[in-house]
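Researcher: Checking consistency across runs. Here is Arginase family protein again:
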Amino acid sequence: MMQQTPVVLDVDGSVGPLTQERRLPLADWQELVRFGCGLRSFRRFSQAMQEQLPAQHGTVLMGSGDFHHLSWPLIERCIAQKDFSAKHPLRVVVLDNHPDNMRFPWGVHCGSWVRRVAMHPAVSQVHVAGITSQDIGSAHAWENYLRPLRAGKLTYWSCGVDTGWARRVGAGKAFRSFADISQLVQALSSHLHDWPQDTYLSIDKDVFAAEVVRTNWDQGRMLEEQAVQLIDALRGQIAGSDITGDVSSWHYGTWWKRLMSAGDGQDTQIDAATLAGWQAGQHALNQRLIQRIALSSTS
């Protein structure tokens, strides 16, 4: 069906060919948008993207995890197209090894977009699940935007991170900590099944353990079958979806992007043979995830 046609935002050339895909040529925007940019530039890109998107489509693939902030306009588009509102809100579930709710005062970047989605009046709550990154640990507590956490609009589902600091700043209820990923997945699956709601699903493949797929960010511990369990728990609820976390090699021309990506431990310079192997694994996983998401779609 047309509404299940996958869309590739082809900004970095990392996403392999998909059955009946719609591919949008956006490579000219890569240096400007990759990792992050100012809001004016981001609005220009979003408009160019929106003009090319088909009215009905399936999962959107965005390439490298450096582009996860593209979920923001995609979610806003889903809200507008399907008339979600404060009375009929959209839930957002993000599978990610990072919270993507970190401070970035110069616009938006791949690690800061969640706050903007969580505070949207038509979004009931954002669940970021699978976090093992120390981004939510005490050493980085000050970097997390507290407003959506305190407001009950954002919940972190994590494993192996000391988040005791959250109680001291009035955000304790927003943190769900587990001994291992299997317990986390079971608890979240039960929640999603027991509290059905129209949901936008965003998957950053750095949530997966390295033996599942390789990315160029620090990776989590989730297994593929655990992600499938969460997707299945959303059967009949998925109103929109996207996938990121593919791998591409890129040298930033912008000095602050080189500095910040290096500070985040990101590896953007990957030799050709390694890159080809990683992309083959990514491509196979993309196809399996797309098929599974389609089974849980509302349309």
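Researcher: Does this match what you'd expect to see?
Model: One thing to look at in this run: The chain has a mean pLDDT of 95.
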